[in-house]
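Why do we care about 3D structure at all? Because function follows from shape, and shape follows, mostly, from sequence. That is the central idea of this module. The next example makes it concrete: a single protein chain, its amino acid sequence, and then its structure expressed as tokens.
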Amino acid sequence: MPKAYEEIADDLRQQIQAGTWRPGDRLPSEEELKQSYRKGGPTIRQALDVLLTEGLIDKQHGRGTFVRVPRKVVRRTNERHQWEKDRARESLTEREQTGATEHDTGLTVHELVFSAKFRERDANEDLASAFDVPVGTRLLERVYQTRYEKEPAPFNVSHSYLVREHIEKNPDLLDETKEPWPGGTQNQLLTVGIEIDRVIERITAARPPTQEEAKALGMSPGMAVMELRKMCIDVTGRVVEVADVILPGDRTELTFVTPLARW
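And the structure:
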């Protein structure tokens, strides 16, 4: 038999789905809900917590509870990598028109707000193993965040790593002010003579976000993130980029397309 808070949560959920309250609308106060359902505060709070976990509502300190405005969905497919490689050799004018985020969201470059922060660091055991280089090898860490101009939080947080020695003959690749780079990483690597042969992507976990991740991605308690590690391998078999991407589960759709050879 459903508990009282589950019945209340179900009723509120149905009203949201029916459009009684639309995205951005303020829900009745806790006191009003107590009177409406004739239940105590703890029961009402439990019901609201269920909807919060489901991503249907947001609680705003000092303002109340609101129906959550759905975020722009990122549809990420493995076919994007060939698209990026083809685009890497286009003219600057062509490369400036669109990028991977625009490809995955359907937005234009003018609708996006981009952030890049670079720093140099030494490879720890994990990254040294991924690149097959000695621990302590000098890396360039690039932290990327891109968001829709109408939303407060980025689509994901990406930590991309390059071996400094591989790219230092083009000083522009070490300069965060050159971002966003038309043509992305594949064009950047092309400028130093590196061609990507294949990309390996591995989803390593689906878990609750850390406090830092939840704040950065604008996520409510109970939502999940996915950890994705991307490794780019050049035509000589050398790993030339490792990227650790935190993807928010409430607005990321992953599609894997596998072409099969004909008999």
